[in-house]
Amino acid sequence: MQVFNKSMAKKSLVHTWYIYPILVAISSILWIWGFSAFHQPTKHQRLTLFFATEIKDSSFLQSIKNDHYDREKLREVEAFFSLPDVPGYETKLQLYLTDSDFLVLDDKTLEKYQLVAHQIFVPFDEETKNNYLFPENTYFSYDSKDYGVLIKKKGEESYFSSYMTFDETRDYYLALSVSSTNLGKMLNKNNEYYDNALTFMHYLVEKSL
Fold first, then answer.
1. Could you read off the pLDDT of 2-58 as tens digits, one per residue?
2. Which residue, 61, 70, 81, 114, could crosslink 142 as a Cys pair with Cβ 3.0–4.6 Å?
3. Which residues pair with 104 in a beta bridge?
4. CA angle (88 as vertex; 82, 90 as ends), nearest 5
5. pTM of the predicted model, to two decimals?
């Protein structure tokens, strides 16, 4: 019986040998996928930004991340963009109005949404202005609330002109999204530690002055 078993095992191995490399490959893929999934940035280690411009060079965003943040504090910055007058702008905008940390929008877009601004943007309170912004900043205001901070004035060169294409007939403001989980305690006092969107805003606005 033992001889029979060995013989059968050898015959089986001859006909099924290819299964073992496949199993090894599948196991390796699953291990790599699991490792990658486990080490993905958390929602607090990732920023999602939308620009109503054309970004020609996003290196300025990576420079801010690399120069001012530890890796475990902020691991990923995603920037999406679309010029306001190109097809598909409204579709993209609708997506990132509900899935971003902040948006850089032109004045015409903000005016279009000002009636519902309180539903999609977080107004700048005095504490946020004092801690993250600058006395010389100007704001897009509606109904006695400030919903955007100016980062690019129409017809004027700025730090960002080398990296983005703007419509020079419009002002551009940075607005904070209610969908962000990185606004510190602006939306939730228990979220005070997670302020990456606010600090990143600070560095962007600083460059615009």
1. 444 556 555 555 556 555 566 555 655 655 544 444 468 899 999 999 999 999 999
2. 114
3. 51, 174
4. 80
5. 0.82
